[in-house]
TrEMBL record:
<comment type="similarity">
    <text>Belongs to the glucosamine/galactosamine-6-phosphate isomerase family. 6-phosphogluconolactonase subfamily.</text>
</comment>
<feature type="domain" description="Glucosamine/galactosamine-6-phosphate isomerase">
    <location>
        <begin position="8"/>
        <end position="224"/>
    </location>
</feature>
<dbReference type="InterPro" id="IPR006148">
    <property type="entry name" value="Glc/Gal-6P_isomerase"/>
</dbReference>
<dbReference type="Pfam" id="PF01182">
    <property type="entry name" value="Glucosamine_iso"/>
</dbReference>
<comment type="function">
    <text>Hydrolysis of 6-phosphogluconolactone to 6-phosphogluconate.</text>
</comment>
<dbReference type="InterPro" id="IPR039104">
    <property type="entry name" value="6PGL"/>
</dbReference>
<dbReference type="InterPro" id="IPR005900">
    <property type="entry name" value="6-phosphogluconolactonase_DevB"/>
</dbReference>
<protein>
    <recommendedName>
        <fullName>6-phosphogluconolactonase</fullName>
        <ecNumber>3.1.1.31</ecNumber>
    </recommendedName>
</protein>
<comment type="pathway">
    <text>Carbohydrate degradation; pentose phosphate pathway; D-ribulose 5-phosphate from D-glucose 6-phosphate (oxidative stage): step 2/3.</text>
</comment>
<keyword id="KW-0378">Hydrolase</keyword>
<dbReference type="GO" id="GO:0017057">
    <property type="term" value="F:6-phosphogluconolactonase activity"/>
</dbReference>
<dbReference type="InterPro" id="IPR037171">
    <property type="entry name" value="NagB/RpiA_transferase-like"/>
</dbReference>
Length: 237
C-alpha cells in the first residue's frame, strides 16, 4: 500500500482530483471508458466539488464514465442521508454525464437484499464476469470500517457475492455495499481518511495484528494499486 501524508486538506483534495482525472484519461484512451465506484461522506464530497469546477470538468470525458457506488444507506435518493444524492448535487448534476451510465445503489419497491442481486447484475453487464473496476474511492470510519463493512458483521466473511445488503442494528437501518472480494479486484483503489479521530484505527490497520473483524479496512489488500491519502493528525505525527 502506498501512503501519502499531507500537510493540508486542500492539497489532499487536489491530488485526489488529479488522480481521478489522470486515471480517467488513461483508461478512456486505452479502453474507451472509465468505470468507477464512489463513496459518500465529507472527504469524497470535497473531491467531487473540485472535480465539478472548470479546471477539471472541461478536460474529463464525462460521457465515457460509468458510475457505481461503493455503498449506500437504504434510503430514497432524495433523502439527505443518501450518498447518491450528495454525489448528484456536488458532481453529476454539474457535468455532462450520460444518465444510462449511472447506477444508484437504491431502488424503490424492492427489498435491499433483492436489489443487491440486481445491482451485481448491473456490474456484470458493464464490467463482465471478471468484475474489475478501473477505480474505487473508499473512505474509512473512526472504527476502521470501509464501505458498509462494519466491525463484527457477517458480511465481513462474504467471499462470493459482489454486492450484499443487511440490517445494521446499531444504525437501525439497512445498508447495501460492495463486498471485499470485488473491491480488491479493482485496478486502482484510493482510500481517504484524515483527522485525529482516525488515528487509533489507522494505526491498528497499518501496524497492528490482522483483525478485520475489528478493523474491516484490513480486508482491503495492501497492494501496489492501493493508495491511501491521509494527514499528519491521523498518522499521529
Amino acid at each position: 500500500m502506498n501512503i501519502r501524508i499531507f500537510d493540508d486538506l486542500d492539497t489532499l483534495y487536489t491530488e485526489a482530483a488529479d488522480f481521478f482525472a489522470d486515471l480517467s484519461e488513461k483508461s478512456i484512451r486505452e479502453k474507451g471508458r472509465f468505470t468507477v465506484a464512489l463513496s459518500g461522506g465529507s472527504s469524497p464530497k470535497a473531491i467531487f466539488q473540485l472535480l465539478a469546477t472548470e479546471k477539471y470538468a472541461g478536460k474529463i470525458q464525462w460521457d465515457k464514465i460509468y458510475f457505481f457506488w461503493v455503498d449506500e444507506r437504504w434510503v430514497p435518493l432524495n433523502d439527505e442521508k443518501s450518498n447518491a444524492r450528495m454525489t448528484f448535487e456536488t458532481l453529476l448534476d454539474r457535468v455532462p454525464v450520460c444518465e444510462d451510465h449511472i447506477f444508484p445503489m437504491y431502488k424503490a419497491n424492492i427489498t435491499p437484499e433483492k436489489y443487491a442481486q440486481e445491482y451485481e447484475s448491473y456490474i456484470r453487464n458493464v464490467l463482465g464476469d471478471e468484475g474489475v473496476f478501473d477505480f474505487i474511492l473508499l473512505g474509512m470510519g473512526d472504527d476502521g470500517h470501509t464501505a458498509s463493512l462494519f466491525p463484527g458483521e457477517e458480511i465481513l466473511k462474504e467471499n462470493e457475492r459482489w454486492v450484499d445488503a443487511y440490517y445494521l442494528k446499531p444504525q437501525e437501518m439497512h445498508r447495501i455495499t460492495l463486498t471485499a472480494p470485488v473491491i480488491n479486484k479493482a485496478e486502482n483503489i484510493l482510500a481517504v481518511a484524515f483527522g485525529e479521530s482516525k488515528k487509533h484505527a489507522l494505526n491498528e490497520i497499518l501496524n497492528g495484528d490482522y483483525n478485520p473483524e475489528l478493523y474491516p479496512m484490513q480486508l482491503i489488500e495492501k497492494k501496489e494499486n492501493f493508495l491511501f491519502f491521509t494527514d499528519h493528525k491521523a498518522m499521529g505525527k
